[in-house]
Write a structure and sequence with these properties.
12 helices, 3-stranded antiparallel sheet, 6-stranded antiparallel sheet, 12 strands, flat
Length: about 350
């Protein structure tokens, strides 16, 4: 049986003119699709806040005598057998611990309040951090509702309009420096740089701010923090985080590393006394070992004998130091890893 080659090619030929004619006939659908696509791209590019990624490097030193060791686990003595094979994962656990992150947030006063600028059309928003034209002052012991939006419209160099509409329906014209107080809030709004501030009536002049929940903010930054090792020995850690304001993320990384380094034991200190003086650091170290996969941890009592403590005149606290050390480890271990009371 013979098959005509010309017939076979004819069946496989695509009629380009036919499809081109269909596109021309429905050109308006094509134009509408292009318009919608370009419009969406413009809106996203125009009104979406950019996200910045910042990073920093930290060297985890492991000197023979642990001089200059920046890791907080150096406070527990009796670990010399492990120092030659330092487990960097423990240091990562400390850096990601709630205690270290919470201390960083506490020391960063500008993290207490979030400031946001609103565009003239009311759509575009931008987080300001320390570049906001005003600053909110309040007593840390006074009442504040975290997360509640408080709208600010700057009317002049002297006055602003304060509005809280979420179920409170508050509208007040106040002067900068006046104290605002009710059953939910107690704060004062001041111009950040009154000597150089210039009011521009043509700009939006609309902002809002809210008080942050410290624990929630701590967990947010813990979740964003990424730590990687970038050398074969794993002694160099790269810390990175992302956010809408680059300087704010930089400030957090710098403060986190500062606290991490400060949490290391300084020369001449008695590590066992940290059970009473800095229990949160001792527990953070225990937790880092459990997080790294350990089933057993040593209590911070290696040098807790009266003979050794007497050298620093701490022997009268021997029982308290050792009992506290055991209690700290028990609290971190929990019922899953701690079976019976031996204290």
């Amino acid at each position: 049986m013979e098959i005509s080659t010309s017939k076979l090619f004819a069946e496989e030929t695509i009629d380009i003119k036919k499809y081109f004619a269909k596109i021309l006939f429905n050109w308006y659908w094509f134009a509408i699709s292009v318009f919608i696509t370009v419009s969406i791209a413009y809106v996203l590019n125009r009104y979406t806040e950019p996200i910045y990624r910042v990073s920093s490097s930290l060297i985890v030193r492991d000197d023979e005598r642990s001089k200059g060791l920046t890791g907080a686990e150096n406070i527990i003595q009796g670990m010399e057998m492990f120092r030659s094979q330092k487990n960097v994962q423990n240091e990562i656990g400390i850096l990601k611990s709630f205690t270290i992150a919470n201390r960083a947030i506490q020391e960063l006063n500008d993290f207490e309040v979030t400031y946001i600028a609103v565009g003239r059309r009311g759509f575009k928003e931008a987080k300001l951090y320390t570049s906001s034209p005003f600053i909110v002052k309040y007593d840390s012991l006074s009442r504040q509702i975290p997360g509640e939006w408080i709208d600010i419209t700057i009317l002049s160099k002297d006055e602003y309009l304060l509005e809280i509409n979420e179920n409170l329906n508050i509208h007040r014209r106040l002067k900068f420096g006046d104290r605002f107080t009710n059953e939910y809030f107690d704060f004062t709004v001041n111009l950040r740089h009154p000597e150089s501030f210039i009011h521009n009536p043509k700009s939006s002049n609309k902002y809002y701010f809210f008080f942050n929940n410290q624990n929630g903010l701590t967990n947010n930054y813990r979740g964003k923090l990424v730590i990687e090792t970038n050398d074969k020995k794993g002694s160099i850690l790269t810390l990175s985080t992302t956010g809408f304001v680059a300087t704010q993320e930089v400030d957090y990384l710098n403060k986190l590393m500062d606290i991490y380094i400060r949490s290391g034991l300084e020369g001449g200190e008695v590590s066992e006394f940290w059970n009473l003086e800095k229990p949160e650091v001792v527990q953070a170290i225990h937790k880092s070992y459990f997080d790294a996969g350990s089933d057993v941890v040593m209590t911070n009592t290696f040098g807790g004998s009266p003979l050794k403590l007497k050298k620093t005149d701490l022997h009268k606290h021997t029982e308290e130091i050792n009992r506290t050390a055991v209690q700290l480890a028990k609290e971190v271990a929990g019922k899953e890893k701690y079976g019976q009371d031996i204290s």
